[in-house]
Amino acid sequence: xxxxxxxxxxxxxxxxxxxxxxxxxxxxxxxxxxxxxxxxxxxxxxxxxxxxxxxxxxxxxxxxxxxxxxxxxxxxxxxxxxxxxxxxxxxxxxxxxxxxxxxxxxxxxxxxxxxxxxxxxxxxxxxxxxxxxxxxxxxxxxxxxxxxxxxxxxxxxxxxxxxxxxxxxxxxxxxxxxxxxxxxxxxxxxxxxxxxxxxxxxxxxxxxxxxxxxxxxxxxxxxxxxxxxxxxxxxxxxxxxxxxxxxxxxxxxxxxxxxxxxxxxxxxxxxxxxxxxxxxxxxxxxxxxxxxxxxxxxxxxxxxxxxxxxxxxxxxxxxxxxxxxxxxxxxxxxxxxxxxxxxxxxxxxxxxxxxxxxxxxxxxxxxxxxxxxxxxxxxxxxxxxxxxxxxxxxxxxxxxxxxxxxxxxxxxxxxxxxxxxxxxxxxxxxxxxxxxxxxxxxxxxxxxxxxxxxxxxxxxxxxxxxxxxxxxxxxxxxxxxxxxxxxxxxxxxxxxxxxxxxxxxxxxxxxxxxxxxxxxxxxxxxxxxxxxxxxxxxxxxxxxxx
Length: 546
Ligand code: GLC
Ligand code: CA
Hints:
Elements: E1 11-14, H1 30-35, H2 37-43, E2 47-50, E3 54-55, E4 67-71, H3 78-90, E5 94-99, H4 109-116, E6 128-129, E7 150-153, E8 158-161, H5 176-191, E9 196-199, H6 220-230, E10 238-242, H7 248-255, E11 264-266, H8 269-272, E12 275-276, E13 280-284, H9 289-302, E14 310-311, H10 321-325, H11 332-344, E15 349-353, H12 374-385, H13 390-400, H14 437-442, H15 447-460, H16 462-466, E16 468-472, E17 479-486, E18 489-496, E19 502-505, E20 515-520, E21 531-534, E22 539-544
Parallel strand pairs: 1-2, 1-15, 2-5, 5-9, 9-10, 10-11, 14-15
Antiparallel strand pairs: 3-4, 6-8, 7-8, 12-13, 16-17, 17-18, 18-22, 19-21, 20-22
Bound molecules: alpha-D-glucopyranose and calcium ion.
């Protein structure tokens, strides 16, 4: 496998609205991010995935863009954005811009033009269909945010497609002029010195609308190859495609070296495992280690020699990692450390979502009015109209709603967690008094310092980056363990994924394994022997001596 600089990089995702407010309006902003670059440098990360900061009416918090080449006033100015890029670079940190080109905002000038008349030159930038015979939407395609995926433009009597909110009309990627505009825009961003792109729902751009094929349409990979050739393929950039639909076979198409598409995909198999087949994320299934192990193993194995994995437990659309996969109660600290070790010891590029490094947890607002996320709000109303009870829907929102990840970052224990001096746009999680960056920095044994150490280890030990992945103790119902091996060096990674004390019988062939403990969340382990008494969520990585 050809080595790339970003193979041993660690990405940190910033959700700007919730990261740091510099000017006291309750909304995070670019200057707030600049003020925290030293913190990020200390953590050791190399790349920032910046969720959208472009001009936007904020129907979906910036995933609805009205100008790709301007900055939302509430986040700052283009000059500040350029300062952020430069200041980050001085710290060896590169910025991945969020590229949202499956759709625009309904306030984008292209859409405003398109609405003017059927023969406007921009009409064909979007996807229009005549009503069905009864005057209703052309077909029964549903939006991810609830309701029909078609909205009526009364003036022309035609419907336009929107896979997300009706304020996010889908772009028509069958129109080459759309490609030209998007490619030119991407090149202007690359010229500003960014490190690459995170590509929002990229698997949807090849859609075949009349067949109702949205993900993985027949032109998808062609479109990505064209984009690669016209833009980022000309330099050494990082590209990560969000692809909810991706199978391992698809991932090889996206990220195979000779394919000239993307660096890696961001797929959600390990997340979707715990969603209901019908009600999806709104009815979550309890965490179950066996299927989690099977999914991770599947992806580690499938991309062992070709392609490259993104590794993540959380992002701005998902619940908090420790709440989902660990324990947000008594074992919050050891379980968050275990999750950090497990993440960074897999093969791929790790992504840390803001606040994960201090073990931030899900939030449980009692009333729907405290929520801000368009998806939770819309689906609350849709599902209640379908007969689901308030309590049941709130359970779903508490478990999987996107605002879990979007409450403000906890910087210290002052009012509003040091995020802002006024009422924030969304309430802070009340547990900020215990869980915050200032406290974590002051505590040598904190989750934060564990992350910092783990990020540093990836720079130091090639076995963590390039080592083969081989599961061990495969059928164990509570332990997830594997060995990474490279050039005769072996690293055992062993995690108790439960809150129980376990007695682990070590298989004979592993009993004489001993060496250097690179990281642990209890006392370091330097040998295995016949039996191990594992603490709740105990986890360690042992570099086995030759
Ligand atoms: C992606 C984003 C999500 C957004 C959606 C529509 O899934 O991560 O936040 O709502 O695309 O742009
Ligand atoms: Ca602000």
